[in-house]
Structure formats: C-alpha cells, structure tokens
Amino acid sequence: MNHRWSLLICLVVLTAGTGSHALLVSQFSAAMAQGRIEWKVADFQKETDLSKRFGAVTNCVVLVHVQGGKEVAFQRLDEISSLMDDAAAYETYVADAIRNYLP
Q1: CATH number at residue 32
Q2: On the CB side of 67, how many CA atoms lie within 13 Å of its CA?
Q3: What pTM, to 2 d.p., does this model score?
Q4: How many domains does the chain have?
Q5: What is the pLDDT of residues 75-86, one digit of tens each?
Q6: Relative orientation angle of helices 14-27 and 87-101, to the nearest 10 degrees
Q7: Distance from C-alpha of 83 to C-alpha of 71, rounded to nearest angstrom
Q8: Is the N or the C terminus of the chain less surrounded, counting Cβ atoms within 10 Å?
C-alpha cells in the first residue's frame, strides 16, 4: 500500500507557512525524500472545498493521510495561531503532531 502524508497550510499567515516548511526540512527531510511527507501550500479562503473538507475557518496546519490517492484521515492543528510568538512551542507542537500522525 502506498502511504503518503501531506501537510497543507493556509497562505494567510506566511510566518506559519515558512515555519512549518523549515521544520519539515530540518526534522523530517528523510521522510520527505522517501515521499512519506509531501509539503503543499493551500489558501482555504480561495479553495473553499478545502475549508469544507477540513473544517478550516482560521489559519492552521492540516496533516492529511493519503492512501491510494485518496484522503483517508486528517488532523487539523488549530493551535498554531496562539503559538506564533513562541517559536520553540510552535515547533514542538507541530513536530509532535507529525510524529504522532506518521505510521
């Protein structure tokens, strides 16, 4: 079975996008190189289907489990907005969620 994990992030907060991508590169580069994690950027305000599918109403990171080309599960990380001023807490929150969500 083909397991791929995608990270989707709103473009509304560029700091979140930059921080999340930097975190992936620094802590998950092997999983990215293996194709286990795929980085995607999305704007939930423009792509309203994403907002409906993931229930995104504010800036967030969404971890999506894609299997066989289909989304089978997701986890929305809503706390990023409250952690934007604390880089260490933000990084820990996102990295822990990724580690817990990966198979």
Answers
A1: 3.40.30.10
A2: 7
A3: 0.78
A4: 1
A5: 888 888 888 888
A6: 60
A7: 27
A8: N
